[in-house]
Amino acid sequence: MAKIALVDDDRNILTSVAMTLEAEGFEVVTYNDGQAALDGFNIGLPDLAVLDIKMPRMDGMDLLQRLRQKTKMPVIFLTSKDDEIDEVLGLRMGADDYVKKPFSQRLLVERIRALLRRQDAIENNTVGDTEETKVIERGNLRMDPLRHSVSWKGKEVALTVTEFLLLQALAQRPGFVKSRDQLMDVAYDDQVYVDDRTIDSHIKRLRKKMRTADDEFSAIETLYGIGYRYNEE
C-alpha cells in the first residue's frame, strides 16, 4: 500500500481527496501547511506527495526545494488556474507533474498511479527494453523515459508526465498522424474522460515549453480535424 501525503491549507480539499485516495487503497496522511509537512517528512517520508503551492508558514515551492535536497520521491503540485509561472518554476525545481484547480479527483488518482509505477520500475530495475522505455533520438530531440528527461538541441526542457507521454507517442513514429482519441488513450486511463480541447491545450503548452529551448521549434504539426504529427527535423 503506497503512502500519499496531501499538503494543502484548504481543509475541504484535504478531506475529500483523502477519502478518494483511501477508497482507492492508498494510505493517506494530511498536512495543512508546508512546515507541518516538513516536520512530518523528517520523521518518515511518504511514497508520493501532493503539494499546494500557496500555503501559510511554508509554501509548496520552499517545501519542494527542501525535499529535493534529500529525496527524489514523486511530487505533484496543485496549482490555481493562472499559476503558469509557478508551474514552470516548480517543474524546473524538480516537481514531476501538476494538476490545476479545480480538478477531477479521478484524474489526480491516475496521475498518482502513473508516477508510482514509474518510480517503482526505476527503483526496482524492473523496466524492460520496450518502446515505452527506449531512449528516443529524433534529430534535435532526445527523450529518456526512465529519467523522464527531454532535451532539444542539448537544452533541457521540463515537461509534466502528461506532456512527456504525448511527445513520446508522437516522436516514436515520425510522420505518422495520431488522432486526438489516440493521444487521449496514451495520456489517460480508460476511466478518465477528457474532451478534444484538453488534448489541444496540452499540445499548446508542450509547444510553448519546447520553444523555451528553440524559438523556431515546429516539429509538432497540427492536421486540423484529424490530429497531430511529429516531423523529424
What does this structure look like?
The protein is an alpha/beta fold and 233 residues long. It has helices at 11-23, 34-43, 60-67, 84-93, 105-124, 161-171, 180-187, 196-210; strands at 3-7, 27-31, 48-52, 75-79, 97-100, 136-138, 141-144, 149-152, 155-156, 177-179, 220-223, 227-230. Helix 2 packs parallel to helix 3 (60-67). It is globular, with a radius of gyration of 18 Å. The mean pLDDT is 84.
Per-chain topology:
Elements: E1 3-7, H1 11-23, E2 27-31, H2 34-43, E3 48-52, H3 60-67, E4 75-79, H4 84-93, E5 97-100, H5 105-124, E6 136-138, E7 141-144, E8 149-152, E9 155-156, H6 161-171, E10 177-179, H7 180-187, H8 196-210, E11 220-223, E12 227-230
Parallel strand pairs: 1-2, 1-3, 3-4, 4-5
Antiparallel strand pairs: 6-7, 7-8, 8-9, 10-12, 11-12
Helix pairs in contact: 2-3, 6-8
Outline of the structure:
This protein has helices at residues 11-23, 34-43, 60-67, 84-93, 105-124, 161-171, 180-187, 196-210; strands at residues 3-7, 27-31, 48-52, 75-79, 97-100, 136-138, 141-144, 149-152, 155-156, 177-179, 220-223, 227-230.
Q: What's the alpha carbon Rg, rounded to whole Å? A: 18 Å
- Taking the alpha carbons of the first and last residues, their distance comes to 45 Å
Percent strand: 15-25%
User: Main sheet?
Assistant: 5 strands, parallel
Flag low-confidence runs.
Answer: none
How many helix segments? 8
Q: Which of globular, elongated, flat, extended, rod-shaped describes the shape?
A: globular
Order of helices and strands: EHEHEHEHEHEEEEHEHHEE
SSE-based structural type: alpha/beta
